């Protein structure tokens, strides 16, 4: 059975427990496992020593408890025949005369594997070595038998389990807190999902530190990390347990429960195996590390297939370039602007240039470029008059954009030049024999190239550089005139996606003390995106709206992010987009614009192959010198065919 578009559902459970009451604990485990499986979970995790309770102390060396634990394990195994999932629970087990703190993997009525705890803590409040042996005492790999199962069972710390196309590694509590957790070795041997059965007690500040460990371990290993901690019912003689259930993926927290509940706790999430596999493939240092440590792990088949769930227990952000928190957006904007300013400042310093020429249209992109340029001049203590801002009205320029451009330039105190391109373009139409009433690509691109020629010649005139204004989204779609606005001496917005540009402009608007500047910036944010190359309508409003022609930028930025960041196929991106934009766009609309994106992304590569320099600001970049190298004549047939099949 194939995965649900690369997602696999996992559950972390902290059941109620009665110390040393195996019958009670087994009932809780079976009941909670059934409920999680009913919700589509393929992997279900319980805490450390959950069958007996963690705080049994010297009772662990009492035969009645150990025998009951074996019988309880047998009951869980029998119940698993009706639970289509891999169940992992904690139990004390005698193997070759020693007692081990173990994780037991169960599915389909069978105990599939036993993984003992690697590192046995014996400090502060922990004294586990009083009861449990280290697995170093066992010459692995071995198989063992239990009274409840005739078939031999793989035993050792060298085991990963397969669930469909995913591999699962297991470690126990203290293992995570060590310099090199066992889960690191499991991940380097292929495990994308790492499980931790824990009984870590709660102390002041410990939870935040644990969260940081979990997120870092998932990030370092490019893996999902599922954590289940002992909760209500454990002995409070000296310690208190808060029942933590946590799921993280590649450094991001997906789910965490509300702690301190007296009721059982369960969190469920869908893990993106495709994304993890792609990052492991793409980040070569991960593979290099794995090569340095040849796999010594045994792969044990769980003999279950991951379910195909029709729903998706995972939030997919429709705007992956824009954080969903105002505080984070503000901090992100400040960081991006500092990157842009630092890049431009270095370029001005390296070229000994104190003059910049920039075309100002009254649109978002040129506004952002101008604001960054002003910020750069201020940082370098250069006179703002060295910024030559040129507005070049054409056939499609509206009063709204013209007035905003003029207001902004005056408020910022830069040098203003106004040059109408109409006479020159009309002469050009006469020279090439083009009818100006024919509003085709020649009509539009002649205007764009005339503007670029003016900017280049003015830069020569003043001894400066032309600052490009095109953004990352336009570069992806090729929405630029070749050798027109496509060209500059430095493209300060080249790494900024369209969906983020307005937030950056708003960042400046919030901070300015000039009312005219703030008013103009806010109106620019609200102005429809347009190249203004076609005459306005009868009321003087913008007639040519970019998103009517190439599609909504929020969709294209979504497509761009998952195409470049993860290398996902159109089918996968379509599946994700239909979830992310549910209620905003129907699936037919998403399919239409996805096909447009794929076609334009391939066809317009030739423009990106000769891009001017520009700063990278995020994980997605299209520079031909760095992040994206692609033949200009590569075929898009595979991608378009997949779009047609959606």
SSE topology:
Blueprint: E1 7-14, H1 22-38, E2 43-45, H2 63-79, E3 86-95, E4 98-107, E5 110-116, E6 142-146, E7 149-155, E8 159-163, E9 166-172, H3 182-188, E10 193-198, H4 206-220, E11 224-229, E12 245-249, E13 252-256, E14 265-272, H5 273-282, H6 284-292, E15 298-301, H7 326-350, E16 356-359, H8 364-379, E17 387-391, H9 399-412, E18 415-418, H10 422-432, H11 441-462, E19 465-468, H12 472-477, E20 490-491, H13 498-511, H14 515-526, H15 546-550, H16 553-564, H17 570-580, H18 587-603, H19 605-608, H20 637-645
Parallel strand pairs: 1-2, 2-3, 8-15, 9-10, 10-11, 16-17, 16-19, 17-18, 19-20
Antiparallel strand pairs: 1-14, 3-4, 4-5, 6-7, 8-9, 11-12, 12-13
Helix pairs in contact: 1-2, 7-8, 7-13, 8-13, 9-14, 10-11, 13-14, 16-18, 17-18, 18-20
Describe this structure in words.
This protein has 646 residues and is α/β, with parallel strands linked by helices. It has helices spanning 22-38, 63-79, 182-188, 206-220, 273-282, 284-292, 326-350, 364-379, 399-412, 422-432, 441-462, 472-477, 498-511, 515-526, 546-550, 553-564, 570-580, 587-603, 605-608, 637-645, and strands at 7-14, 43-45, 86-95, 98-107, 110-116, 142-146, 149-155, 159-163, 166-172, 193-198, 224-229, 245-249, 252-256, 265-272, 298-301, 356-359, 387-391, 415-418, 465-468, 490-491. The strands form four sheets. A seven-stranded mixed beta sheet has the order 13-12-11-10-9-8-15, with helices on one face. A six-stranded mixed beta sheet has the order 5-4-3-2-1-14. Helix 12 (472-477) links the parallel strand 19 (465-468) and strand 20 (490-491). Helix 9 (399-412) runs antiparallel to helix 14 (515-526).
């Amino acid at each position: 059975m194939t995965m649900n578009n690369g997602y696999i559902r996992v559950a972390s459970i902290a059941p109620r427990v009665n110390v040393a009451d195996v019958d009670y604990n087994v009932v809780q485990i079976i009941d909670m496992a059934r409920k999680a499986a009913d919700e589509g979970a393929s992997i279900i995790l319980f805490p450390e020593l959950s069958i007996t309770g963690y705080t049994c102390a010297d009772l662990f060396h009492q035969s009645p408890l150990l025998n009951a634990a074996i019988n309880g394990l047998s009951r869980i195994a029998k119940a698993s025949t009706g639970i289509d999932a891999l169940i992992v629970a904690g139990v004390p087990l005698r193997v070759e005369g020693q007692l081990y703190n173990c994780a037991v993997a169960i599915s389909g009525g069978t105990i599939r594997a036993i993984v003992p705890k690697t590192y046995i803590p014996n400090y502060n409040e922990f004294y586990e070595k009083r009861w449990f042996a280290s697995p170093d005492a066992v010459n692995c790999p071995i198989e063992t038998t239990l009274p409840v199962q005739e078939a031999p069972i793989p035993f050792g710390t060298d085991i990963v389990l397969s669930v469909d196309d995913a591999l699962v590694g297991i470690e126990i509590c203290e293992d995570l807190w060590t310099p090199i957790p066992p889960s690191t070795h499991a991940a380097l041997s292929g495990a994308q999902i790492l499980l931790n059965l824990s009984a870590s007690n709660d102390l002041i500040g410990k939870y935040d530190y644990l969260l940081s460990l979990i997120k870092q371990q998932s990030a370092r290993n490019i893996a999902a990390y599922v954590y289940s901690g002992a909760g209500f019912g454990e002995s409070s003689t000296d310690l208190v347990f808060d029942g933590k259930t946590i799921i993280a993926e590649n450094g991001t927290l997906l789910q965490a429960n509300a702690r301190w509940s007296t009721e059982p706790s369960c969190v469920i999430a869908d893990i993106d195996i495709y994304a993890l596999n792609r990052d492991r493939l793409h980040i070569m240092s991960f593979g290099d590390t794995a090569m340095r440590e040849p796999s010594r792990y045994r792969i044990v088949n769980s003999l279950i297939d991951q379910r195909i769930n029709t729903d998706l227990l995972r939030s997919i952000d429709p705007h992956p370039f824009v954080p969903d928190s105002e505080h984070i957006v503000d901090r992100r904007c400040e960081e991006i602007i500092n990157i842009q300013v630092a890049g431009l400042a270095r370029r001005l310093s390296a070229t000994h240039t104190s003059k910049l020429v920039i075309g100002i249209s009254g649109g978002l992109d040129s506004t952002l470029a101008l604001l960054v340029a002003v910020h750069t001049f201020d940082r370098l203590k250069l006179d703002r008059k060295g910024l030559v801002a040129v507005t070049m009205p054409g056939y499609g320029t509206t009063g709204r954009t013209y007035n905003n451009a003029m207001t902004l330039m005056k408020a910022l105190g830069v040098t203003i030049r106004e040059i109408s391109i109409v006479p020159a373009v009309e002469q050009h139409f006469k020279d090439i024999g083009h009818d100006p009433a024919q509003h085709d690509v020649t009509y539009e691109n002649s205007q764009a190239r005339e503007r670029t020629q003016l900017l280049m010649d003015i830069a020569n005139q003043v001894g400066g550089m032309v600052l490009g204004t095109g953004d990352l989204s336009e570069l992806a779609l090729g929405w630029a005139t070749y050798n027109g606005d496509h060209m500059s001496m430095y493209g300060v917005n080249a790494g900024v996606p369209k969906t983020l540009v307005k937030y950056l402009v708003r960042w400046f608007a919030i901070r300015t003390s000039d009312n005219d500047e703030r008013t103009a910036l806010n109106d620019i944010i609200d102005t429809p995106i347009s190249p203004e190359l076609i005459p306005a309508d009868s009321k003087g409003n913008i007639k040519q709206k970019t998103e009517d022609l190439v599609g909504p930028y929020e969709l294209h930025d979504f497509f761009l992010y998952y195409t470049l960041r993860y290398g996902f196929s159109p089918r996968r991106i379509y599946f994700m987009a239909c979830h992310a934009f549910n209620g905003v766009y129907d699936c037919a609309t998403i399919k239409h614009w996805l096909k447009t994106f794929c076609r334009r992304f391939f066809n317009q590569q030739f423009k990106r192959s000769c891009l001017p320099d520009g700063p990278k600001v995020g994980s997605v970049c299209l520079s031909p010198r760095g992040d994206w190298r692609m033949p200009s004549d590569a075929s898009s047939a595979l991608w378009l065919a997949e779009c047609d099949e959606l």
